[in-house]
Specification:
heterodimer; A: about 700 residues; alpha+beta; 6-stranded antiparallel sheet; 5-stranded antiparallel sheet; 26 helices; 18 strands; about 55% helix; B: about 350 residues; 9 helices; about 30% strand
């Protein structure tokens, strides 16, 4: 008997320890989480974060070593940690000051991100209580979510989900330290999969709300076409393999490649160096864009074609359509030059529907101001072209003939279509037309337009995209069902193009592409091999999209991925409140709040039922796995005896029961005793594999003996 | 202010009483208890609420940026909350607990109550604590529990002498992600009988008790050898030294010698003889003596002649007498008597 009273147990007040494996895992997880924002945060911040992470790793390493040694060392480690907490304070304060100073140049959103990542990195140094760990976890999730502001492609989203799994796994391991890492992550995956049903339902039916307040926007560089073009500009776009937009013609016949001129804007002002949009055009568009009351109604006639366009964020307002484009979408403004614009800058993936009247004419009449603007040239800037124009006027009466003559020159006199044109002095069109004779689309379009203007024909430069890659992966299944064409066109940045429009009496604005005269392949099917090799060499050997097209299986894979990405963009990223409304209306008829509530409730209940079912199912498997063959055989024997009226009480041992059997059923007394003994051997003794086999076969034989004797 | 506080306390008392009543009806005291939806409570933890708040933040972020992926993420995390709730529940249900009701020990000692746990499948993160527990006691943690039976020891710190019923055992788990806490309050009718903390008597004090002489006498008698007064049939368990070997050798059977001194001045440990004015201290001395005598395998009796106290309803002094005996059983009954003394 202990007479010495033991002291009350001292309770560590909610101290929290991560095992060294978990701590390292957390470190890796932090690294991954931070890496998602790598492109958004500035270099100095990355350096600070990297330093902090290295320090953290060092501390972890030390902790591991001291844990291996005696606890005496712990004191010194604690002191080290104490010093580091002072330092931490200093770093935190100075970091915040640095962020505050650079806030103006960074912009609100990015400086907020800096603060977030900085806090996330530093928080890891002081995980003392469970609360701290929880905070770190939530910060990590927020980091992942904010990374999605900048990038939303399918691949990136999957990556974020993968990181989410890692985050949750670490959290899960705190509550199940006995599980292996793999098992823990499996559990987390199961949890997420079981949540997916409700999440998707919520995504589909939960009302899309409009923004509650103005948020700092993503300060990104403008992508794609610019509203100022000088010769050589588009060539730089030609190096980019980024997606510009996608077009889905649904089930309609896709027009020929050579007619796919996606107009973005018309450039009517030329100052001798560069083409810009007309000033009053800009003013006009501003009013047109901002107030939906100013409506320009393009005159349309003839057959129309309906298609969906999904534009990647370009941080510019241009939208793309085939002339003459009209749209019922409230966000789309129809401009007087027959282009279309978004009422907001495109900062995210935007989806709109366009109806194009391909054979309708543009501006059958032209007012004097417009006419004068489209005839104006800076006199004397390109004297040789002016002289040529004068000659053309004399030579040809019909304006079409004048244009044809110029195109004929391009076709016949060894002009060269190239991504790497020689430099022009002062962007001199003279020099290009008469001397260098090699250039990209803007060179041809501007010199042609200039020449036309000088020759008395109203002309303007139009920029946009030409062509597009047809992807029928999605359509393959569809067309088998319906026998209709489907699929979509993907238009990349390298499809950017510039061409001319001349105004002809009775016809209106007529599209003329001088490029077609120089490099017919570009207009008919896309880039020629020479252009592709040029792109390759200019990208310093970096493999462009066009190279992939050479290898068929890679191209096949690429098209598959593109199709998948399109579906993702279309149905997930582009799932707007309008689409939601349409879908719900189609599925459930007239929309009512209680219907939505009902759907959510049903999803909730069914997902809960799903978990229950899963649990039941798992239990069955678990039981089956855990029952040994000898036990199941013994149970079987018990069942047979139960039919004879002999029930084994739960608290009776197997041996005692065999005695009972001996007394009550003497015909199997010996067999059952042997059976019981073998069973007990198997169940309670530690046997080698071989012995177990032997015993098991004996048990089976004895079982047969029992059944035989009973019947 | 004061009135307010008393009202609050009173209402709390009423609520607690109601709750206890409800609990005892819903989850009556049993030796063995199985967790099911009848006796499991489940609520989000603080972290769970923070998580939800954070999820709403994500929703706002997604809405303000009109970002479908962030919205999807927030929906996913919201439904994860529900899924985790289900998993928390299923991790906890179907567990079976059984426990021994009574434990004895000395004051200022930790009593350990064994609880056996049988799982239904693999259960994780199961914690135990007495619901009316002292804050300094550690929560007993069981990281994993399989279908085998596992025994844990649930500590309870005995602060003072007395007989206590320990109330319910709180079994809880935050398994899965710590978003929910599932718990149950199980009533095993745990009882603690806490003996006084033994207090050593100094030599002077020993003299005061008047035990010294009788002790000496018995010693003398033992030393005195043959001066035994009578022979009795030997009872199994009696000291070998008292066997009358001569008689045994003569073939008269096993007899034991009984001495006059022992017979005459039987050892009575008397409450009133204890050299202290404080009841508790007296009991502590008694406890020490009981242990000491038992250790020396001596026979003794216990007399608790408690003075009439104000709190006692009976004005007469109470008297508890335990006849002289020896052995573990006797010791225990003496100690229990000490524990049960009410002031």
């Amino acid at each position: 008997m202990i007479t010495n009273p033991t002291k009350p147990l001292s309770q560590p007040v909610d101290l929290f320890y991560l095992t060294s494996k978990n701590a390292w895992l957390l470190w890796c997880c932090q690294l991954l989480n931070l890496s998602t924002l790598l492109l958004e945060i500035s270099t100095w911040m990355i350096a600070v974060i990297a330093l902090c992470l290295c320090w953290q790793a060092l501390l972890l390493h030390n902790r591991l070593n001291t844990n291996k040694k005696h606890s005496k060392v712990n004191i010194s480690v604690k002191q080290q940690m104490a010093i580091s907490s002072m330092l931490l304070m200093f770093i935190a304060v100075s970091g915040c000051i640095a962020i505050a100073i650079s806030a103006r140049s960074l912009g609100v959103l990015v400086s907020m991100l800096h603060l977030l990542t900085f806090a996330y990195t530093l928080k890891a140094f002081e995980i003392k209580k469970r609360k701290d760990f929880y905070q770190l976890f939530l910060l990590g999730l927020f980091l992942l979510a904010s990374a999605l502001i900048f990038k939303q492609t399918l691949a990136f989203s999957l990556l974020i989900v993968f990181f989410l799994i890692i985050n949750l796994t670490i959290l899960h391991r705190v509550f199940s330290p006995t599980k292996t890492l793999l098992l823990a992550s499996k559990t987390v995956c199961i949890l997420l999969l079981q949540s997916a049903l409700l999440a998707v339902t919520l995504f589909i039916v939960f009302p899309r709300l409009s923004p509650f307040w103005q948020v700092p926007s993503v300060n990104s560089a403008k992508i794609g076409l610019s509203d100022e073009v000088s010769p050589g500009d588009i060539a730089s776009l030609a190096l980019s393999s980024d997606l510009a937009f996608r077009v889905d013609f649904k089930r309609e016949q896709i027009p020929d490649y050579s007619t796919l001129y996606w107009r973005a804007m018309t450039l009517e002002n030329f100052d001798g160096k560069k083409w810009t949009r007309a000033k009053d055009d800009i003013n006009k568009t501003l009013s047109q864009v901002t107030s939906p009351n100013v409506i320009f109604e393009p005159e349309t006639s003839g057959l129309s074609i309906l298609y969906d366009v999904t534009v990647e964020p370009s941080y510019q307002p241009w939208l793309f359509g085939l002339a003459v484009a009209t749209s019922n979408d409230a966000r789309v403004a129809l401009m007087s030059d027959y282009t279309i614009q978004s009422r907001n800058v495109l900062s995210q993936i935007t989806h709109y529907q366009v109806k194009s009247y391909l054979h309708s004419s543009l501006d059958l009449t032209i007012n004097e101001v417009d006419k004068q603007r489209n005839l104006s040239i800076v006199k004397g800037s390109n004297p040789r072209l002016e002289k040529l124009a004068a000659k053309l006027i004399k030579q040809y009466v019909d304006p079409i003939d004048r244009a044809q003559a110029v195109l004929e020159t391009f076709r016949e006199s060894h002009y060269f279509y190239t991504l790497q044109p020689p430099k022009l002095l002062n962007n001199s069109l003279d020099q290009f037309y008469f001397d260098t004779k090699s250039g990209f689309c803007v060179h041809y379009a501007s010199s042609f337009t200039y020449l036309m203007r000088a020759a008395g024909i109203p002309a303007r430069v139009v920029t946009g995209y030409l062509g597009g890659e047809y992807n029928n992966v999605n359509a393959a299944a569809l067309s088998q069902q319906n026998g209709q064409q489907g699929g979509h066109l993907s238009i990349y940045q390298y499809d950017a193009h510039a061409w001319s429009e001349i105004w002809l009496h009775g016809i209106g604005w007529k599209k003329i592409d001088p490029t077609a005269a120089v490099d017919p392949q570009r207009v008919e099917s896309g880039w020629s091999n020479t252009l592709v090799t040029q792109q390759l060499s200019m990208n310093n050997g970096f493999i462009g999209l066009y190279q992939f097209k050479r290898i068929s299986w890679i191209n096949e894979l690429r098209l598959q991925l593109d199709a998948l990405d399109y579906q993702w963009t279309r149905w997930v990223l582009g799932f707007s409140s309008k689409q939601q409304y349409d879908l719900l209306k189609r599925l459930f008829g007239k929309q009512m709040p209680w219907k939505i509530a009902g759907i959510v409730a049903i999803a909730l209940i069914s997902s809960m039922a799903l978990v229950t079912l899963f649990y039941r199912f798992n239990m069955k498997i678990f039981k089956r796995k855990n029952v040994t063959p000898w036990f199941s055989l013994y149970q079987k024997a018990l069942k047979i005896l139960a039919t004879k009226g002999l029930h084994k009480p739960v608290n009776m041992t197997a041996f005692d029961f065999s005695m009972l059997v001996t007394a009550r059923l003497p015909q199997i007394s010996k067999e059952f005793l042997d059976f019981t003994l073998t069973f007990e051997q198997l169940n309670y003794r530690k046997l080698s594999d071989l012995e177990r086999e032997l015993h098991l076969s004996r048990l089976k034989k004895q079982y047969k003996g029992i059944t035989a004797n009973l019947s | 202010m004061n009135i307010f506080r008393t009202i609050k306390q009173a209402s709390q008392k009423v609520i607690n009483k109601r709750f206890d009543h409800w609990l005892s009806r819903r989850m009556p005291s049993r030796f063995q208890q199985k967790l099911s939806n009848r006796n499991i409570f489940i609520l989000p933890t603080r972290f769970g609420f923070t998580y939800l708040f954070f999820d709403i933040l994500l929703f706002l972020l997604g809405t303000n940026y009109q970002n479908n992926i962030i919205l999807l993420l927030s929906y996913l995390l919201a439904s994860l909350f529900i899924t985790v709730m289900m998993h928390s529940f299923y991790n906890f249900s179907q567990l079976t607990f059984s426990s021994k009701a009574k434990q004895t020990g000395f004051a200022k000692q930790v009593l350990n109550y064994p609880i056996t746990i049988t799982g239904h499948k693999i259960h994780f993160d199961i914690n135990f604590i007495f619901s009316e527990s002292q804050h300094f006691l550690k929560v007993v943690k069981l990281a994993q529990c399989d279908t085998d039976t596992i025994e844990i020891l649930l500590p309870w710190y005995a602060k003072q002498r007395g007989v206590y019923s320990l109330g319910r055992v709180k079994v809880f788990s935050e398994y899965s992600l710590g978003l929910f806490i599932t718990w149950s309050l199980l009533d095993f009718s745990h009882q603690a009988i806490v003996f006084p903390q033994p207090k050593r008597l100094t030599d002077n004090q020993q003299f005061l008790t008047g035990l010294d002489e009788s002790n000496g006498a018995s010693m003398q008698a033992t030393v005195g050898g043959e001066d035994y007064s009578e022979l009795k049939n030997y009872v199994l368990g009696e000291s070998q030294a008292r066997i009358a070997w001569k008689q045994l050798a003569r073939g008269q059977g096993k007899l034991s010698k009984n001495y006059q001194a022992q017979q005459g001045s039987l050892l009575w440990l008397k409450f009133s003889n204890m050299p202290s004015s404080d009841i508790e201290t007296k009991l502590q001395f008694l406890c020490f003596l009981i242990l000491e005598y038992s250790h020396n395998k001596q026979c003794f009796g216990l007399v608790l002649d408690l003075p009439p106290s104000i709190t006692n309803s009976t004005k007469n002094s109470t008297l508890i007498k335990i006849e002289p005996n020896s052995g573990y059983q006797h010791q225990q009954s003496c100690l229990i008597a000490l524990a049960k003394v009410t002031d």
